[in-house]
Known about the structure:
heterodimer, A: mainly beta, 12 strands, B: mainly beta, 7-stranded mixed β-sheet, 0% helix
Amino acid sequence: AQSVTQPDIHITVSEGASLELRCNYSYGATPYLFWYVQSPGQGLQLLLKYFSGDTLVQGIKGFEAEFKRSQSSFNLRKPSVHWSDAAEYFCAVGALTGGGNKLTFGTGTQLKVEL
Amino acid sequence: SAVISQKPSRDICQRGTSLTIQCQVDSQVTMMFWYRQQPGQSLTLIATANQGSEATYESGFVIDKFPISRPNLTFSTLTVSNMSPEDSSIYLCSVVRTGVEGYTFGSGTRLTVV
């Protein structure tokens, strides 16, 4: 069964500092990987996704993530955090073919940005 | 990507009653899903809404409690039946239009049962 682990429940960074949110997955085949952001009282917004090809993917709002098969990881990064980035971030793994069409989410990482 | 309209955005309901949540998409989509997000928790898949047939439920979710309809390729409903305070959650509709777009989520329905 597929699973996602986000080891950090809470992370606090200073505005302007770099950010890395960790995500490890377990999946029996080639995974499709996603990062979503959820602001308070809002739905989920897709930041970026990895299907295949270049293992470094660029997303919206200056975010990027790197797929490392050997480490089963898909960490999210941003070189300089803005106060508006404070939100909850979810990593998810899924498939879009065959019977595995559902997304499995990690437990989320709450990001706080100090001014 | 697909644009989802989910209604209602929030509701406060009495225990023992039922609430139907609607999910309308601006274009035909391949797949539609319903998720639950309990307070302070991650998202859990309730079921896959199948067009023209019964929904496929995940372990721990049953049709009697969460009946789902999907009459066409752009619309689905989720009903939360015989509600209890434990059903207080955010319920989200998600769709897949094409593989390369990934999954799009509605803004959610914040349900409080009193």
